[in-house]
Amino acid sequence: MTVKNEQFPQGFLWGGATAANQIEGGFYEGNKGLNIADVLPGGKERLKVLKEPGFNFEIDKTKYNYPNHEAIDFYHRYKEDIKLFAEMGFKVFRMSIAWSRIFPKGTELEPNEEGLAFYDRVFDELHKYGIEPVVTISHYEMPLNLVKEYSGWKSREVIPLFERYASAVLNRYKGKVKYWMTFNEINSALHFPIMSMGFSVQEGENKYQKIFQAFHHQFVASSLAVKACREIIPEAKIGCMLLHAPVYSYDSNPENILYALQEEQIFNYFCGDVQVRGEYPGYAKRFFEENLVDILMEDGDLDLIKDYTVDYIGLSYYMSQTQKKEKEGLDTAAGNLLEGVKNPFLKASDWGWEIDPTGLRIGLNRLYGRYQIPLFVVENGLGAYDKIEDDGLINDDYRIDYLRSHIEAMAEAIKDGVDLMGYTSWGCIDLVSASTGEFSKRYGFIYVDKHDDGSGTLNRERKKSFYWYKDVIKSNGEVL
Known about the structure:
Layout: E1 13-17, H1 20-23, H2 46-51, H3 74-88, E2 92-96, H4 99-102, H5 113-128, E3 132-138, H6 144-150, H7 158-172, E4 179-183, H8 193-197, H9 207-232, E5 237-243, E6 247-249, H10 254-277, H11 282-290, H12 301-307, E7 312-316, E8 321-323, E9 332-335, E10 338-341, E11 347-348, E12 354-355, H13 357-371, E13 375-379, H14 397-415, E14 420-426, E15 446-448, E16 460-462, H15 464-474
Parallel strand pairs: 1-2, 1-14, 2-3, 3-4, 4-5, 5-7, 6-8, 7-13, 13-14
Antiparallel strand pairs: 9-10, 11-12, 15-16
């Protein structure tokens, strides 16, 4: 099927997206310290295990396997992988820097040179092919020492440590990186704070007090990173990154519409309102009062947040969510750390994530209408089981169909007037799933021979979608 589309602007940033902890491996090499991802067990029970009170952030190989330790070995195979990205025609490659490669414990006064040098080599290899890196400063890989010593972002003491880290990488790579983001999917912590905030809410604790206090610390840290970027690389662009999942009301009952609005405000917009508009939104005051949240702030915090807002919004989009105030008796739909009620108009992926390309157009319109700054879809993709046929081909037409429909939705949003910078498909090469720790949940254009039981050669193979995406990029989205 070929679809003609002439809506994407010249210079649109086509590419793919990954995260250090899901592709690199080499978890003890180059003087890297342990981070949160290194203690996350593999398997479908990952989130259940992490939600249990008392998770001790230790490695226990008698009970679990740890796929992030080797991942797909990008640490040693980055040249091979980047060459494949270049073959597809990537303009940009979204990646993250592992904080614990640069400051192994997070408390050192000087950065680890071996870690810095590794990313120098990666950036140089990307530039060799004319690919611009898009770098997330913190993507679910906080140094484990900061989790154990400070309870992660619960503690204000982590702010200057993050500032030191951000300043170190901004200074080191000021000639190599033009596009930055501070915290990956910062709002995801509302439902699941372990990976992004470094703690779990214990029984008897006020969940919202802990999480929103940690949000405040991250907002201050993010603004300090924006300030450092403006001073160190004034020509660069630095954004926030949000998990965006438009919320639909289950029906036209005003009670359900109001409930959906309130869910949307707190989950989809709160973090953006602070980081883009530079102030706490009005609706948050009532939410805080009703949930007994009292945020401790220091003098100057609100001025800093106001003065150093982001240049663009990076967002992930995988699914919408449908909400009803009273859910009893209704089928639920869960995915991407979210849970709502089943939408009868949508199909779902192999992992139960509802597929809704129109939701991407809706979300882009809502975000741009609210903020009026450029948007960048930095994650979107389909996790699915892939099969190697007898002839060696991997015919992932289901992935092509998914991506085509979402790219069409972006084109429609651009027609609607949305300022969209680019698109980096998530997991452009197969990697470890963040939510389940599985290899079998594959997203990539490139198949990696690695399996949930740890077996595999790590060989790379091009899927059918590889050649399809190459044509999409070559035609600037005209041929889908």
